[in-house]
Amino acid sequence: MKSLFNGRQARQYRDPLALRAYTSRLLGQNPSLVLHGGGNTSVKAQIKNLLGETIDVLYVKGSGWDLATIEPQGFAPVRMNALSKMARLKNISDAQMVKEQRAAMTDPYAPNPSVEAILHAIIPFRFVDHTHADAVVAVTNTPQGRRSIDKIYGNKVIVIPYVMPGFLLAKKVYEMTRNIDWRRYEGMVLMHHGIFSFHDEAQESYERMIRLVSKAERFIARCGQKKKIHLSGTSAPQQKNNLLDLAKLRKTVSKASGKALIARWNESPKASAFSRWPKIKSIATRGPLTPDHVIRTKPIPVVLSSTIDQDIQSFSSQYDQYFKRFANGHLTRLDLAPRWAVWPGHGIVCFGETFKDARITEDIAEHTMEAIIWAESLGGWKALPAKDIFDVEYWELEQVKLKGKKSRPLDGKIALVTGAASGIGKACAQGLAAQGALVGALDIDRRVETLFAGKEIKGITCDLTKDKDIASAIETIVRQWGGIDIVVSNAGIFPVSAALQNVDEKVWQKSLDINLTGHQKLIKAIIPYLQEGIDPTIIIMASKNVPAPGPGAAAYSVAKAGLTQLGRLAALELAQWGIRVNMIHPNQVFDTAIWSPNVLKERAKHYKMSVTEYKTNNLLKTEIKSTDVAQLVCALAGNIFAKTTGAQIPLDGGNERVI
Ligand code: NAD
What is the Cα–Cα distance from 534 to 512, expressed in whole angstroms? Predict the structure, then answer.
């Protein structure tokens, strides 16, 4: 492991807090030191208050900040005096500790100080760095962990046996170090938890961390050579059956959790090889890398067999037993679903309510696999006893967070929207994503890929008249997020108007191909995935032209009438799997490519109206926008319409002919 410290960069940061933020970011950039909000750092400083008094404070990482991106305002200034006195208290609850720490802040607008603030205050150096370095934790998670730590560091580090983080840990360190000479040590190892380094200079404190962790890495490399674990593997070939199994797994896990979850399939050579390890069942289910991860990963993953339903059921009942064994009284049990699965032969699958949650779990799982492989090569992977894991998972501070958790109506849902590069489809993709859904945005127009290149909406080029394009787009979405729940079959064209005797055969055929057959092809291909979807639904963009056709638009109206009939049949046939199918009949949605400013002007003139009058040419005298259609789509995809299928809903501001 290399130091990333750059003297030239560091010189910009004259203020100790700015320098503290800089070296914290260096730690945060290395995922084998800290992951997603893990670890914490601090600096001790003096400030002058309004009254001119000098106050000793500890600037410690604030909760909600990530070391990778932390800035000076991410540190909470807490009076050293109060923290030192708290360390001497006999016992207080962690909730009390958090309250007192907050009360001791010199800036009430700063974030909540880390729960390790007291521990940082006890360490008599200006800069303190704390990480959950994979290598150090992996060594401590072995039967001879303590002996190995002694071998690696001699007497250069203080070693603290595992204690629950928070006040108990601060107290333990306070008592164990009261009479020691800290200058003799370079760091402190917390068994099964992590490592601290400290110094009066920021650079030295950071670089000590790098040196200490590198020693553990070299130890693993040396000892690991003697008993090398050989995991060979290649990525599993991507097959349709695998993707359907993935969707089934996601559905079963979502059911167990009581809400829709995203599933991230990781079939990297490492994950694949790990999943093929002959003793995987025993090795993967001994416990997490550190209890800190349990909030994200649950204590263990589920190891799948050929019967996914039974696997998840047995995971849930074991989790329930684990909860009942250790819970005493008023705890709120978390859901019964696993957060990651080992899929023998195929890699691992990680679950989350949002894409970000699933990615965090995936990162942690990747580091856990690595640490397990290391620990096995050192003599055996041995996690903490279940009771210690439980105490962190059901920590009072975590239980409070649960109560304040907010979610969006479509969190965990996966949608496919066609014709998403423009107009109504674009608004639907954005509207569904704003409510929490992950969206595959399909269009024949390649620009969809740059328009939607983010993590929550993925633009995919697809010509809906081609079966191959449709299959590939569906597979891309399922591969990426684990399934499909919402289909907005929207793409369409408005062919040139012509009286029946003048209809061009090519124009007629093209309209049928895109406005009718394209939708039929999509629905046919997607049914197997919707059967494994969560509250699955299809929303079809038809037209006011179905209930109230206009002369000259036969190619369009006939195709849309056929599409509506297709939707009605789909509602009849797919209800047996709980798939709802509803149709929207919009009219005159002008902020779309169908309506160019010229066409709009021409049509208004034709009816002897101004453009504004023409735009609100309906009973309610209101203009229909593509975002109005998107809102209706979101409602149809959500709970309000959970019991409606086969409906045709006008969105036209009121039309006498339709009514
Ligand atoms: P739009 O032209 O802005 O968007 C339609 C999108 O569909 C375009 O991005 C286009 O590239 C895409 N598309 C066309 N052929 C495709 C194919 N073969 N494969 C993939 N994508 C294809 O128009 P819009 O008004 O947003 O239309 C959306 C839907 O709403 C259409 O079905 C249309 O018939 C229907 N509709 C629109 C109105 C209106 O007034 N705008 C009224 C009633 C119904």
Answer: 31
Question: Is the CB of 419 inside a 6 Å radius of any atom of ligand 1?
Answer: yes
Question: 275, 342 in Cβ contact below 8 A?
Answer: yes
Rounded to whole angstroms, the Cα distance separating 32 from 135 reads 8
pLDDT at residue 228, as a whole number: 58
Q: How many CA atoms does the CB half-sphere of 369 hold within 13 Å?
A: 25
Instruction: Give the DSSP H or E segment for 505.
Output: helix 505-512
Residue recorded with tokens 């979405």:
477
Mutate to test the pocket of ligand 1, among 430, 442, 444, 472 (most ligand atoms within 8 A of CB): 444
> How far apart are alpha carbons 656 and 114 in whole angstroms?
64
Q: Is the pTM of this model over 0.70?
A: yes
Give the count of beta carbons closer than 10 Å to the beta carbon of residue 8: 6
pLDDT per residue over 141-181, tens digit each?
999 999 999 999 999 999 999 999 999 999 999 999 999 99
Of the CA atoms within 13 Å of residue 43, those in its CB half-sphere come to 22
Mean pLDDT computed over 528-543: 98
d(CA 97, CA 108): 16
Residue type, 224: G
Query: 514 alpha carbon to ligand 1 midpoint, in Å?
Result: 10
pLDDT (tens digit, 9 = 90+) per residue, 222-268?
886 655 556 665 555 556 679 999 999 999 999 999 999 999 999 99
Q: Compute the distance between CA of residue 19 and CA of residue 75 in angstroms, rounded to an integer.
A: 12
Q: Using the 8-state DSSP alphabet, how is residue 415 labeled?
A: E
Q: Are 132 and 35 in contact (CB under 8 A)?
A: yes
Q: Which residues pair with 57 in a beta bridge?
A: 45, 79
What's the CA gap between 622 and 473, in Å, rounded? 37
Q: Please report, for residues 73, 173, 261, 338, 533, the alpha-carbon distance to residue 352 in angstroms, rounded to integers and kept in the order given.
A: 29, 35, 5, 10, 16
The DSSP code for 184 is G
Q: What sign does the dihedral 475-536-332-327 (CA atoms) show? A: negative
CA-closest candidate to residue 514, choices 595, 594, 626 = 594
Instruction: Tell me which residue of 14, 68, 8 sits closest to 41, measured CA to CA.
Output: 68
CA–CA distance, 1 with 25 (Å, rounded to integer): 16
Name every residue whose Cβ is closer than 8 Å to that of residue 68 and which is 6 or more positions away in sequence: 25, 28, 29, 34
What is the CA(421)–ligand 1 centre distance, in A?
9
Whether ligand 1 lies within 6 angstroms of the CB of 301 is answered as: no
Q: How far apart are CA 196 and CA 216, in angstroms?
A: 14
Residue 44 neighbours by CB under 8 Å, 6+ apart:
56, 57, 58, 59, 80, 121, 125, 126
Query: Could you give the C-alpha distances from 149 to 40, 197, 304, 577, in angstroms and in order?
Result: 22, 15, 35, 57
Ligand 1 atom closest to the Cα of residue 544 is 43
Beta strands at 457-461 and 127-131: parallel, antiparallel or unpaired: unpaired
Going from the Cα of 313 to the center of ligand 1, the distance in angstroms, rounded, reads: 44
Q: Give the whole-angstrom CA distance, residue 434 versus residue 415.
A: 12
